[in-house]
Automatic annotation (TrEMBL):
Keyword Electron transport listed: no
Protein name: ABC-2 type transport system ATP-binding protein
Keyword ATP-binding: yes
Pfam families noted in UniProt: ABC_tran
Record PANTHER family: ABC TRANSPORTER ATP-BINDING PROTEIN (PTHR42711:SF10)
Gene3D superfamilies noted in UniProt: P-loop containing nucleotide triphosphate hydrolases
Transmembrane segments: none
UniProt-listed InterPro entries: AAA+_ATPase, ABC_transporter-like_ATP-bd, ABC_transporter-like_CS, ABC_transporter_ATP-binding, P-loop_NTPase
Lineage: Bacteria, Pseudomonadati, Pseudomonadota, Alphaproteobacteria, Sphingomonadales
Residues in ABC transporter domain copies: 5-234
Organism: Hephaestia caeni
Alphabetical keyword list: ATP-binding, Nucleotide-binding, Transport
């Protein structure tokens, strides 16, 4: 099956010479939830803005459900819903009127039953007659989502959708995203909240300094790059790691009461048996062992701090 969105060689250099986006090649599969992770200023919003026709690319092509996003802009754009970072809506318009207006902008026939369903999903139905200026910040963000969904898009972009919102709205957002995906909507979300990617995404891409570093299925990424830690609870605090333990990747924690060993669980030899034997040879006693695997956040931090030529 062809991807619903295909980005090929898309880059952006501004007039002043600033290179906001290196050439990006990325295919998004139909019906998937894709999370694009990156620190502030990494190029996430630039890439989304180009796909949505807000920013003109310096190079490359974009195909949206078989339609060229530049030559056949209107047809391609009708398939896309965008929830931007910034809350920018007509403050004096009612919620329902604002959502109806967004639907008309895309040439869709009136369908108040569908809009009611969207507003109910977002806990906005009771606020449908309220002017947007009367809503809280969280409710205004819900209105942005409703407007993006008003024309029944096949692809929904969520640009930092829960930045600055409360925990309740964040959880509601996650539920809504899963419900939309169940209906066949393709979701692309940019975030620097790692837990959002872990909660929702099928695949994860990491972008830094305008360059896509890696794209992979979430589980595969964690298996490929995730490290494991073994914490050894020592019987006696250790002032420093003995030179005889130098061949293992060890650190001291908790004022010398814990010896932490980082290892690759998929390696042929983890080094754990030899480490434990060496501790016995050195007369270093311990009371317990604990193991844990790294989170997606650990992987993300490692990736964005790698030299670009090594990470690419």
């Amino acid at each position: 099956m062809d991807p619903i969105l295909s980005i090929a060689g898309v880059s952006k250099t501004y007039d002043g010479g600033f290179r906001a986006l290196e050439p990006v090649d990325l295919d998004i599969e139909r019906g998937e939830i894709f999370a694009l992770l990156g620190p502030n200023g990494a190029g996430k919003t630039t890439l989304i803005s180009i796909v949505c026709g807000i920013v003109t690319p310096s190079s490359g092509t974009i195909t949206v459900d078989g339609h060229d996003a530049i030559r056949d802009y209107r047809t391609a754009r009708r398939r896309i819903g965008l929830v931007p970072q910034e809350v920018s809506v007509d403050a004096f318009t009612s919620v329902l009127a604002s959502v109806r207006f967004s639907r008309r902008l895309f040439g869709k026939a009136p369908d108040d039953a569908y809009l009611e369903e969207v507003l109910r999903d977002l806990s906005l139905w009771d606020k449908r007659k309220s002017r947007i200026m009367e809503l809280s910040g969280g409710m205004k963000r819900r209105v942005l989502i409703a407007k993006a969904l008003s024309h029944e898009p096949d692809i929904l972009f969520l640009d930092e959708p829960t930045a600055g919102v409360d925990v309740e709205l964040r959880r509601d957002m996650w539920k809504l995203v899963h419900k939309l995906r169940a209906k066949g909507t393709t979701i692309i979300l940019t975030t620097h909240y790692i837990e959002e990617a872990e909660e929702m995404a099928d695949r994860v891409g990491v972008i830094n300094k305008g360059r896509i570093i890696i794209v992979d299925e979430k589980a595969a990424l964690m298996a490929k790059l995730g490290k494991r830690e073994m914490t050894i609870l020592l019987q006696e605090p250790m002032a420093a790691i003995p030179p005889a333990l130098g061949e293992w990747d060890l650190t001291l924690d908790d004022d010398g009461k814990r010896l932490v060993y980082v290892f690759d669980a998929k390696a042929e030899h983890t080094g754990i048996p030899s480490l434990l034997r060496k501790l016995g040879d050195l007369g270093i006693g311990f009371n317990d062992l604990e193991t844990s695997k790294s989170s997606l956040e650990d992987i993300f931090v490692d990736l964005v701090h790698e030299p670009q030529e090594q990470a690419a």
